[in-house]
Amino acid sequence: MAPISEGVPRPTQRSGPVLACVSVCSALVVGFVAAINLAVPRLAASSLQPTSSDLLWIVDAYVVIFACLVIPAGAAGDKLGRKGVLMAGLGIFACGALVSALAPNVAVMLIGRAVTGLGAACVLPNCVGILLHAAAPERRPHALAVWAAASGIGGVVGNVGGGTVLSAGSWRALFVAAALIAACCLAWAARSAPRSARLVRTLDVPGTLLFVAAVVALLTGIIDGPEQGWGSALVLTAFACSILLSLCWVRVELRAPHPMLDPRLFRSPALSSASLGMTLTFFGTFGLFYVNASLLQYGRGFSVLQAGLGIIPLTVPLLVGTRHVPGLVRRIGVPATLSAAFGLTGAGLLALSYASTMAYPVYAAGLFVVGLGIMLAAPCLTAQIASALPVERAGIAGGLQSATRELGSALGVAVVGTVLTAGFTHHLPADPSRHTPLPRTVQEALTPATADHTAVTEAFTQGADTALRAAALVVLLAGALVVAGARRTAPR
């Protein structure tokens, strides 16, 4: 791939303003995943009248498109120029958010969410690519650590900012605010982001479409399982299609001259282990965000702003300790760092499942422990993925990091949300007067005038506890596989 001159491709010494810009842009697109979780109770009670599966899709439509298109968008940045694709992404993001703000029904809402996800996919990988080329080689580990921290904190910023907006207006105001912030970021990027070298390459449209279809089929099976039945034709067909489409995707990618993501890259144990680790980290993080937002509002009676602020203990380790993680990794090594990261994340999720009805300071301590795990995992895994590919493939490296993060987020919301719904319906008290299907949301359960509010919220809390324990189990078991892979590739 021959580079085409486009401005100044070499690292500059003034990377601080660039780091600030790409960090804010990244925090916006990541934070929007978390912010929508706070609006779930309001969306459930809105004129959209969404079902439980609709609510999961409203959250996941953004994340799925984000995850599936982030690698092609990174490749597009390599080919067309990262600054231009970043700016286009911010514009698309703003337009999609406005469509969602004006949505009269669930279908239009999902279209807006998907368009916003496309914009986010164009933003995140090209932020990494711009940063890697703007920072001098000796400053790249520090710059990546700061960017990883900003991306991690983005989820919390989304909670706090979303809570603030929602406390002052309706759920529609949340989407309008996101559009305005994206427009401001667009102006900032136009001024501060440098141009970088372009690469002559083709875009892999067939591989991209197959990848999107495979992930959507997988999530359809997971999300519709509780409502349709795990043995239903729809769910079984969705899982079968996901497997077949995945196999077709691998076959197409192996033959493509410039694949979206070459499966042969994962022959590298270091890259495959780090990618799984990143997926797992965000599986736990955004599964927690989905449960926590509603648990604090339904279970503890918090206002939407209090629920947004309630996640702050998780951010403290990210703010204070992230800059020390590269030095810690050099001292104790990657396997030990990841062992501590997944152990703390799993333990924190497990603790939260038992602290849901305890005093908030006890619950906050569990959030802090989860934050410690994220603090250790995110910078370490980001550096591992970046170092596994050469800097001239920065767009692909950034895309892979972003894809694993967002795919983990989508799976976390789908799996944890599905377990939450199943647990909630299982613990609901029997109501002989009800002749309709069993309710799957708190709003549906509270609709009858005879509904017992206390019993419904207790059922929701028990379902949330089950979901958090399931997330903890996944993090601990899969984390052990990641650590084992890191040990195999660690220098002797």
Q: Which oligomeric state applies?
A: single chain
Query: If you average the pLDDT, what whole number results?
Result: 85
What would you call the structural class? mainly alpha
Number of discrete domains: 2
The CATH class designation of the largest domain is Mainly Alpha
Spatial ordering of strands, largest sheet: 1-2
State the major sheet.
2 strands, antiparallel
Strand content: under 5%
**Total strands:** 2
The CATH topology of the largest domain: Growth Hormone, Chain: A
The CATH architecture of the largest domain: Up-down Bundle
Report on this model:
This protein is mainly alpha-helical and 492 residues long. The protein folds into two domains: 392 residues, Up-down Bundle (Growth Hormone, Chain: A); 54 residues. It contains 18 helices and two strands. Strands 1-2 form a two-stranded antiparallel sheet. Helix 10 packs antiparallel against helix 15. The longest helix is centred in the C-terminal third of the chain and has 37 residues. The chain is globular, with a radius of gyration of 22 Å. The N terminus is likely disordered.
Supply the key terms:
mainly alpha; two-stranded antiparallel sheet; disordered N terminus; single chain; Growth Hormone, Chain: A; 492 residues
State the gist of this model.
Helix content is 78%, strand content 1%.
Write the layout of secondary structure elements.
Layout: E1 3-4, H1 16-38, H2 40-44, H3 52-80, H4 82-101, H5 106-134, H6 140-168, H7 171-192, E2 198-199, H8 205-228, H9 233-255, H10 269-299, H11 304-309, H12 315-321, H13 325-332, H14 334-355, H15 360-388, H16 394-427, H17 442-445, H18 453-489
Antiparallel strand pairs: 1-2
Helix pairs in contact: 1-5, 1-6, 1-7, 1-10, 3-4, 3-5, 3-8, 3-16, 4-5, 4-7, 5-16, 6-7, 6-15, 8-9, 8-16, 10-15, 10-16, 10-18, 12-15, 13-14, 14-15, 14-18, 15-16, 16-18
